Amino acid sequence: MIRTLIADDQPLARGGLAALLGAEDDIEVVGTAADGDQALDLALELRPDVACLDIRMPGLDGIEVAARISAPQLDDPIPVLILTTFDIDDYVFRALEVGVSGFLLKDSEPEEILSALRSIAEGYGTIDRKLTRRIVSEYTQRRQLQPVVASRALSAVTTREREILMLLAQGMTNSEIADQLVIEVATVKSHLARMLPKLGVRSRLQAVVWAYQNHLVTVQDA
Length: 222
Hints:
Oligomer: single chain
Number of domains: 2
Number of helices: 11
CATH topology of the largest domain: Rossmann fold
Order of helices and strands: EHEHEHEHEHEHHHHHH
Number of strands: 6
Distance between the termini: 34 Å
Largest sheet: 6 strands, parallel
Shape: globular
Strand order of the largest sheet: 2-1-3-4-5-6
Radius of gyration: 17 Å
């Protein structure tokens, strides 16, 4: 069971997401919050498997909450899925910097949201395909992370892991990558689990950023 916390200051959006997630047999909504301060308190109290946060909320915004519950240096970080109506702005870049596990637009199809939540709960993360090229391209021009340098990382990753990274950077899901490479989804997940530490990143999302920053893939390729 995936224990989930929802935080959104709009009652309709909060209730709609709770209804969507709560209807699934493998997902339990353990709490809902109307602002960032309440979201932080509930996250620390309930320790959900995934926290679904809106970016712009009264009090603490979703990025500040994410920074306090999902930062890599924490002993027991809580994975965060950001849901927003905004596609490109400084909030998005801040979300990438604090290490959120996933990023989707609120108008995503219900199945996309459910798939993203399950992926994050499994430790892989996700990014909205419509945003991959725009966000990562602009992000890599504005910000600099401290990832493992490309030469050292690429000497450690296998040929198959690199193939998966390239497809990941194009916004493909695990299932799509498996179909493309004619392998099992479980095999894709195993490769990802071994590859991420080699790149010095925690999630699929950060792996995509790493690939763009180190020029393994360009916006034209994606």
